[in-house]
Design a protein that fits this description.
The protein is 65% helix and 4% strand. With 331 residues, the protein is mainly alpha-helical. Helix 6 (132-149) packs antiparallel against helix 10 (234-252). The protein is globular. 36% of the residues are buried. The chain binds Phenylacetyl coenzyme A. The site of Phenylacetyl coenzyme A has 28 residues, from helix 2, helix 6 and helix 9. This is 1,2-phenylacetyl-CoA epoxidase subunit A. Keywords: Oxidoreductase. Its EC number is 1.14.13.149.
């Protein structure tokens, strides 16, 4: 079992005020916190929760797009989609590794995902019904992911911040890949443009939900901002996303499924309608259209991969024993 003693976390009982104040002073001075540094248990737990949820999102997020790899309309599209889905798998692995530096094992995180204890992003519980959904996911979902993740490159926890730098570079390529699909469809036949519009209609609101509840309902927001895990609140990032994305949709000649969406001259931002929060919480709690299928698919992958994990461990053990034997023989 994994028991990297990386943690400098103090237990709840020995967190005196002087320690908490000294830790906060390091955060305020923009110092990066590293795995062996002393840290409050709450800081460690918040990071394990957020990084774990983020890693699961990348891995579960491979499923909706993976659904279209065999049906991509050309070899070029297939190669790009295959590479994108593979990138998401890589992001999951960096993130699991970053979480492991906080003393939690990958097995433990996976068990929490499969048992429903750990969350993953609500967005991946919607189905990909047409090829245009692959364009909409790249444009909107990766676009929202970048908006949320660029500030995470400055997160106070070093391993998470560093993982995010590479992730963001790749997400930015994904976003362009998606937008290019949307542009091709929007400039195609009337049926293709209709497909693009339909995808935007279905993915717009779930994309806005990715940023989480309103700040007033965000349980962890204030503390995470104080610890500089988060650099912007949920509502601030959602607004930035709307402001960046609406002109892109207009350029495509598509319309947004929100009658309240309009430019507010005074604020220098777009006003937009209210999110259906009942739908958001229903999906977060497991009642979305694809929640069950996603977990069934992940459970199957975990069970089918059991022999691979065992074989890899046996192989590593054999190599270790061989190295030891060679070393002994040389002495
Ligand atoms: N879905 O107190 P807050 C991607 C939960 S990008 C599900 O505001 P926090 C790339 C939240 O966990 C997508 N649950 O929470 C890709 C908490 O529950 P808990 C992943 C949600 O943490 C693209 C409760 O609600 N990105 O995968 C959601 O301060 C294309 C209260 O919320 C990240 O994870 C939601 N949308 O703020 C892959 C980024 N929103 O844990 C494939 C890192 C909230 O107490 C294809 N994470 N909840 O049981 C974050 O920035 C934050 O965790 C937030 C939530 C902003 C998501």
């Amino acid at each position: 079992m994994y028991s990297q003693g990386l943690i400098g976390a103090k237990t709840d009982t020995d967190e005196d005020e002087a320690f908490l104040a000294a830790f906060q002073a390091r955060i305020d001075a923009e110092e990066k916190i590293e795995p062996n540094d002393p840290m409050p248990e709450g800081y460690r737990k918040t990071l394990v929760r957020q990084i774990g949820q983020h890693a699961h999102s990348e891995i579960v997020g491979m499923l909706p797009e993976g659904n279209w790899i065999t049906r991509a309309p050309s070899l070029r599209r297939k190669a790009a989609l295959l590479a994108k889905v593979q990138d998401e798998g890589g992001h999951g692995l960096y993130l699991y590794s970053a979480a492991e530096t906080l003393g939690v094992s990958r097995e433990q995180m996976t068990e929490e995902l499969l048992s429903g204890k750990a969350k993953y992003s609500s967005i991946f519980n919607y189905p990909t019904l047409t090829w245009a959904d692959i364009g909409a996911i790249g444009w909107l979902v990766d676009g929202a992911a970048i908006m949320n993740q660029i500030p995470l490159c400055r997160c106070s926890y070093g391993p998470y911040a560093r993982a995010m730098i590479r992730v963001c570079k790749e997400e930015s390529f994904h976003q362009r890949q998606g937008y290019e699909i949307m542009m091709t469809l929007a400039r195609g036949t009337p049926e293709q443009k209709e497909m693009a519009q339909d995808a935007l209609n279905r993915w717009w609101w779930p994309s806005l939900m990715m940023f989480g509840p309103h700040d007033s309902d965000s349980q962890h927001g204030d503390q995470s901002m104080k610890w500089k895990i988060k650099r912007f609140t949920n509502d601030e990032l959602r607004q930035k996303f709307v402001d960046a994305t609406v002109p892109q949709g207009e350029y495509l000649g598509l319309s947004f499924p929100d009658p309240d969406l309009r430019w507010n001259e005074e604020r220098g931002s777009y006003d937009f309608g209210e999110i259906d929060w009942d739908e958001f919480w229903r999906v977060v709690k497991g009642g979305g259209p694809m929640n069950r299928e996603r977990i069934v698919a992940r459970r199957k992958a975990w069970e089918d991969g059991q022999w691979v994990r065992e074989a890899a461990l046996a192989h590593a053990e054999k190599r270790r024993a061989r190295r030891e034997a060679t070393k002994l023989a040389a002495e």
